[in-house]
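Hi V.,

Quick status before I head out on leave. The structure for the redesign project is tokenized and pasted below; the design run finished overnight.
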């Protein structure tokens, strides 16, 4: 799972009652026999494969390192021996992922019309657009909604959007620090994600917030992760502190840009199409807001004073205001880095339905190893060049093995591929993708979603597995729990199929939807590869057992994996995938959004 913010943030204990386990079913179901089906998903296999994938030999599987190539070869060899067909580029298992560093020249502007009076603000003069603003286009919005702090945090008793429909409107919010009483450390992700929340969750066509001083500088300076639709502002600078980022270009790449030549300055890094249509996330300065609010029920000056004091803010429509967004940037690619996804398939049995796919995914990269050495003084030991957290007492361990993150998902998808290949086979085909570069910003899955090796419209569901080998916070009470994220957001039918599959397991798991809440403080929904598919409208389920003290630490090791639990979760995913793959129709996309796990309602 992606770390995003440098500091490890302990999830707040906002537990939502987990689904109660239905009564046990007799284990006489034909699929539970000794051969084939879920019985073929075995803990010993998972242990054997993970012992290699998460071994020191693989050097922490950094995206541009040598170890990840060993992992790719290992997975490929197994797929070949199991008769799982290649589905990557040119008839092979590998798909080349092109990671582009890009320089942008903006000619973008936003024109504001207030009661017939018009002013145009150029990018960099009163407003700032993200460097990666997507393809050229021009559109006008005649409904502009001021939404106070632009924040829904029901856990803190704050909801700016309650009863407010902002679909197809432009949303304006103020107050960088949010309202009084919000603990910044706890609510950081929600505060930084306000633009994304407005456009992606609530259907706004544009979001406008205040410029955040440090954030702007940080965003311009860092080669971003290419995440469009991600919050602008200081979230970007926060992410530049992500371990491994600084070493990505030269150290981890193994070969610098060229002999002594520094890489040309880039504004952002991306794997996605540069001509995609992206809802603009605009940062405004005082002059912009003063004009925007010039006929509003309350002046900008008064609103700003309240926002600075973190006092309650009103909410109203800006009557008679029109905004014209002129999205216009030229992009120059200044560097290309190469990596590999691994893509394979098992063909379905139905002559028609086999042209459609149920996709299973995990990421096989992790954050790598530290090149720096350990120094010791009166304050203890310190590892230079750490790729994440260093567990106290384990300073001599230079390798971030990523056994749980996401070695667990990597070998679970191997088990699924092996089991489906051995049969029984369902009607639809099964697609297996091991994504690269997840830790660098969902690179492999974002690339696959924009440049798929099978048509995206033929993928009826994607089941993503990231970190299923542990108990959340190492608590024994979590030993039967798996967290499901996103299952009800796009397809209620998929959600129900998954719950039915669990009920029929010999020993059902406890399904917990806490992280599916749109106001989840960890914003887990955006932090793994399923999101790249969900952004294309594909129904997804993200399976995870949650964070723990070894998350992104150099002690995420095989010895700490709960293999029996992991086996049962893999069986649940198999059973869910089997049901979807045998369904006569694609799971209906009713797009009702997150409901399971809400803190309120
Ligand atoms: Zn991770």
């Amino acid at each position: 799972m992606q770390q995003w913010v440098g500091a490890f943030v302990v999830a707040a204990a906002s537990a939502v009652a987990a689904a109660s386990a239905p009564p046990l079913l007799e284990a006489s179901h034909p699929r539970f026999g000794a051969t084939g089906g879920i019985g073929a998903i075995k803990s010993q296999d998972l242990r054997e494969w993970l012992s290699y994938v998460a071994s020191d030999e693989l050097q922490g599987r950094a995206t541009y390192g040598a170890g990840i190539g060993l992992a790719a070869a290992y997975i490929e060899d197994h797929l070949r021996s199991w008769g799982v067909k290649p589905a990557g580029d040119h008839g092979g298992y590998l798909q080349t992922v092109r990671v582009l560093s890009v320089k942008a020249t903006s000619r973008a502007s936003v024109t504001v019309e207030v009661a017939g009076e018009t002013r145009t603000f150029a990018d960099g003069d009163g407003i700032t657009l993200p460097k990666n603003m997507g393809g050229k286009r021009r559109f006008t919005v005649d409904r502009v909604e001021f939404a106070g702090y632009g924040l829904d945090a029901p856990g803190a008793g704050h909801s700016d959007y309650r009863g407010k429909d902002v679909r197809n409107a432009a949303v304006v919010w103020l107050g960088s620090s949010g309202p009084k009483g919000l603990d910044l450390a706890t609510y950081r992700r929600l505060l930084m994600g306000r633009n994304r929340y407005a456009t992606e969750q609530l259907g706004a066509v544009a979001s406008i917030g205040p410029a955040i001083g440090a954030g702007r500088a940080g965003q311009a300076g860092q080669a971003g992760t290419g995440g469009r639709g991600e919050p602008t502002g200081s979230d970007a600078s926060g992410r530049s502190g992500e371990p491994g980022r600084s070493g990505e270009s030269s150290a981890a790449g193994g070969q610098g840009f060229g002999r002594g030549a520094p890489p040309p300055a880039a504004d952002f890094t991306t794997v996605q199409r540069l001509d995609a249509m992206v809802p603009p996330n605009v940062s405004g300065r005082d002059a912009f807001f003063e004009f925007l609010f010039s006929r509003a029920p309350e002046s900008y000056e008064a609103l700003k004073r309240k926002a600075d004091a973190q006092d309650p803010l009103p909410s109203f429509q800006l009557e008679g205001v029109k905004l014209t967004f002129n999205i216009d940037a030229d992009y120059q690619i200044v560097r290309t880095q190469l990596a590999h996804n691994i893509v394979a398939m098992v063909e379905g049995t139905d002559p028609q339905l086999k042209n459609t796919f149920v996709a299973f995914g995990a990421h096989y990269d992790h954050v790598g190893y530290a090149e720096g050495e350990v120094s010791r003084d009166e304050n203890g030991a310190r590892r230079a060049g750490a790729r994440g957290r260093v567990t106290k007492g384990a300073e001599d361990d230079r390798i971030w093995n990523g056994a749980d993150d996401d070695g667990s998902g990597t070998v679970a998808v191997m088990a699924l591929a092996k089991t489906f290949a051995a049969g029984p086979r369902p009607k639809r085909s099964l697609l297996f993708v091991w994504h690269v570069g997840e830790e660098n910003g969902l690179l492999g899955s974002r690339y696959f979603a924009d440049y798929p090796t099978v048509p995206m419209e033929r993928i009826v569901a994607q089941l993503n597995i990231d970190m299923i080998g542990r108990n959340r916070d190492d608590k024994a009470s979590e030993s039967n729990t798996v967290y499901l994220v996103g299952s009800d957001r796009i397809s209620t039918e998929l959600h129900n199929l998954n719950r039915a599959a669990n009920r029929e397991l010999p020993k059902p798991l406890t399904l917990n939807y806490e992280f599916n809440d749109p106001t989840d403080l960890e914003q887990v929904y955006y932090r793994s590869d399923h999101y790249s598919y969900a952004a294309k409208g594909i129904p997804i389920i993200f399976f995870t057992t949650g964070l723990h003290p070894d998350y992104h630490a150099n002690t995420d090791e095989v010895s700490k994996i709960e293999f029996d639990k992991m086996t049962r979760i893999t069986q649940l995913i198999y059973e869910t995938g089997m049901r979807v793959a045998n369904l006569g129709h694609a799971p209906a996309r009713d797009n009702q959004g997150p409901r399971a796990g809400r803190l309120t309602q």
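Above is the designed sequence. Residues 1-3, 405, 439, 552 surround zinc ion (CB under 6 Å).

G. will cover questions while I'm gone.

Best,
W.
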